[in-house]
Amino acid sequence: MRTLHAIALTLLVIGGINWGLIGFFQFDLVAAIFGGQTSVLSRIIYGLVGISAVYYVATLFTGEEVEDDTVNTGRVNYGTEFAEENDIENDIDDDLEDR
User: Fold this and answer.
1) Cα 9 off chain centre by
2) Which of 22, 30, 34, 90 has a CB 3.0–4.6 Å from the CB of 41, allowing a cystine?
3) What dihedral do alpha carbons 49, 50, 51, 56 form, nearest 10°?
4) E strand residue ranges, the chain
């Protein structure tokens, strides 16, 4: 599912840039690259951008999110790479017992 989100987002960025170019400069980059607005390749790109927009709108209403590889346990780890938090606490406890 993550790959599908990445592809859809890439197509939406391409479509957004193309619409920005059309709006500001009256230049259709997709049409210029693929041989005009009525060429088969241009229509495929326009169709894929439209499908990815519908896909993203659908995910907004279903609450579907991109899966994350990390697991959030709700606990923050303030340890460093030099020592574990438990080691520091044990050292402090040992120092207090020595006093």
Assistant:
1) 7
2) 34
3) 90
4) none
**Could you give the 3-state DSSP secondary structure of residue 81?**
coil
Helix (H, G, I), strand (E, B) or coil at 1: coil
Q: With bands split at pLDDT 50, 70 and 90, how would you rate the model's confidence at 34?
A: very high
pLDDT in tens, 52-71: 999 999 988 887 665 555 55
DSSP 95: H
Distance CA 59, CA 61 (A): 5
Do residues 49 and 15 make contact, with C-beta atoms less than 8 angstroms apart?
Answer: yes
Rounded to 5 degrees, what are φ and ψ at 83? Answer: -150, 150
pTM of the predicted protein model:
0.62
Instruction: Give every CB contact of residue 7 below 8 A, 6+ residues apart in sequence.
Output: 52
